[in-house]
Design brief:
alpha+beta, Alpha-Beta Plaits, three-stranded antiparallel sheet, 3 helices, 3 strands
Length: about 80
């Protein structure tokens, strides 16, 4: 089943988000390689191709998981969780 994982960033989390980004992208690449990723991307804090220091307000991942519990476990293990 397809699940939408919608996350919200804490305020001023951009430095932590940048640090966690490579590990986050690796996990998305794994979903993509397994044919389970439909779409993923950030929510910029401002309407601009490069939000710069304004950062992001969160992210969206739409991916296929066997169950809601599996989707929740995947989301909980994402490096962005620790980054805020």
């Amino acid at each position: 089943m397809w699940y939408a994982i919608i996350s919200e960033d804490i305020q001023n989390s951009l430095p932590l988000r940048k640090e966690a980004r490579p590990a986050h992208l690796e996990r998305l690449e794994q979903l993509k390689n397994e044919g389970r990723l439909l779409i993923a991307g950030p929510h910029p804090a401002i309407d601009n191709e490069d939000p710069s220091e304004a950062g992001f307000t969160g992210s969206l991942v739409v991916a296929e998981f066997a169950s809601l519990e599996d989707a929740q476990a995947w989301a909980d293990a994402d490096p962005y969780v620790d980054a805020g």
